[in-house]
Amino acid sequence: MNETQLHRQLSSVPLGALRYYDTIGSTNDEALAWALQGAPDFSLVIADEQSKGRGRMDRKWFTPPHAALAISLILRPTSSERAHPARTTGLLALSLADSLRKLGLAPQIKWPNDVLINESKVAGILVETTWMGEELDALVIGMGVNVLNASVPPPDRVFFPASSIETELGHPVERIDLLRDILVNVLAWRPKLGTDDFLTAWDASLAFRGQQVQVQGGSEKPVIGELLGLNPDGSLRLRDERGKSVTVQFGEVHLRQVA
Fold first, then answer.
1. Which domains does the chain have, with CATH numbers?
2. Residue-averaged pLDDT of the chain
3. Can you tell me the distance from the alpha carbon of 121 to that of 96, in angstroms, rounded to the nearest whole number?
4. What's the predicted TM-score (pTM) here?
5. Which 3 state secondary structure label does DSSP give 169?
């Protein structure tokens, strides 16, 4: 993958602008700085390798060369996107999931930001923002995708079982082809962000529906219950052990281990 190939193979995608790096610290850091400098809507930062890639909770994201997709997409939010900021994580998750289904896979979205295949993580998403006073100015949606086997981190560096698209398919895929398809899906889903169709599709793709999960949010006590689905604002709805409906705004979902 190089800049010439990207420009050629993404020529049909109406990007605002494109910045490619053989290696970079973090695509999200670059995209945030670029957004503050006036990057146009739907601009893309992509790197072949990241040395300081990061996910939620400041966890390191493993991005070796020639094996993964490391992208950050800059959106100048519409009024609908400003009204539904929590749904933007689902935007790239749904778009990737649609691309994986076209390949014959059965992805699920582990709320709020991971894409799984066979209960193993193949992608993570990190949404960050820039503000102009009190108004949301730009959304930066970063996504790392384990495309080829070499992109899977070593076992001592993972918090959740990890896999790659190559492992799950049984053969490699071209990263740029996958990227182009994801971006096309983003363009299709983005106008629907505030609609019931968007929420229904995200909800239908949820991992662990109907199962007992534990949601850990920072230093707070874990929330335990049956995963029911999503609320309209993109938060998670559980049924706790007393049968009461509980809303979770932030946290990390894990299957609850049964003794």
1. 3-204 (3.30.930.10), 212-255 (2.30.30.100)
2. 90
3. 13
4. 0.92
5. helix
